[in-house]
Amino acid sequence: MKYKLNMDHCSCEDGYQLGTCIHDYLISKDIKKCCISITLYGKEVYRYMSDACIVDNGHWLQRKTNSCLYFGMSTLELFEKNKGNEQNLVQKYGLTYKDYTFTPGSIPIVLDNDQVIGACTVSGMKPEEDHQSILDGFELYVNRK
Predict the structure, then answer these.
(1) Is the pTM of this model over 0.85?
(2) Radius of gyration of the CA atoms of the chain, in A
């Protein structure tokens, strides 16, 4: 299954609102440790890190975002495609562990013409929870519009 956040348009303000919706969703679920990044058009337009997060969580955000943007697909799809074998990052794709990961938690933001314009990334929970929180927060965002 392809995971992507489809939009007919997306401004930096839209990205900020999406980040806010994901934040509100996570807070409503009483999640204490989470961080969120929305990257659009090559710039980070939203970033949140809860008090329980540490610097390493920010590194995970960046690695997940890098992978999502490089491959143009969610990190869950990358994880499944590579059967969780992170060695493929180096051996198959020539990338580094320091900058990339297949760990779920980042989904591309895509315009209706299939152009990838950014990534929505969550970290701090279990990887599958990170991924699902993006989908649930995006649903909240769509319903608020």
Answers:
(1) yes
(2) 14
